[in-house]
Amino acid sequence: MSLNKLSRVIKAASDAAFTPESFDKGDGFEEYTRKYIFPKPDYTIVHKSHNYASNKEDFIESSLWPDYWFRCNKTKQEFFVECKWRSWFEGQEKLQWCKDLNQLQRYKGYEIDRPVYVLLGINGKPSRPEYLSLFPISSAEYIGLYESFLEKYDIGLLTAIKSQFLFELQ
Q: Cα separation of 42 and 103, whole Å?
C-alpha cells in the first residue's frame, strides 16, 4: 500500500472516530430516506447537503439548505426535504424537531423557490425508525410538535412516496 493511500485510510478512520454522534444519526436517517422514501427510480438528487467531515475542513454554505433537493422523475417537479430523526420519550408532551426558530424560519425561506417538506423519523434507529411523518414546512409554526399534528402527516415506514401524494400535501 502506498504512503498516500495509507494516509487517506488513516484520515477516513480518524474522521469517522471523531464525528459527533448526532451527525452519524443524521447520516443514517438520510440514507434511509433515500433508499426507502425517495428512491432512485422515482427521484433524482439535484443537491445533497455535505457531511460533517467536509464542513469541518471548510464550511460549505449550501449545507444550510435542507438535506435534499429532489426532482421527481415523472413530473419533473423539484422540492426540498429536511430529514430529522428524533427519540420521543413516553410522557413527553411535544417533540422538538428543530433547533430554534431561526432554523425554522431559514427552512421556510427556501419555499420561495420550491416546496420544502420535513421527514421526521421517530424512535427505533435512524436506519430503521418506528414512525414517520412527512409534513410541508408551511404547516409548521413551532419547533415543538404535538403528536396530534404529526398524526395528520403520518406515512408508511418502507413505502416510497408518490409524487401525487407529495404535492397534495401543500
A: 29
Q: Which residue bears the cell 412516496?
A: 161
Cα separation, 92 vs 51, in Å, equals: 30
DSSP lists the bridge partners of residue 133 as 120, 154
Helix, strand, coil tally for the chain in percent (to 5): 40, 30, 30
The three cell numbers locating residue 54? 467536509
- Widest Cα–Cα separation across the chain: 57
**C-alpha grid cell, residue 35:** 433508499
Say how many CA atoms lie within 13 Å of 161 toward its Cβ: 28
Give the residue from 64, 36, 13 showing the smallest Cα distance to 126.
36
pLDDT tens, residue by residue, 92-129: 788 999 989 999 999 999 998 899 999 999 999 999 99
Q: For 50-78, what is each residue's pLDDT tens digit? A: 565 554 565 456 556 799 999 999 999 99
* Predicted TM-score of the model (pTM): 0.81
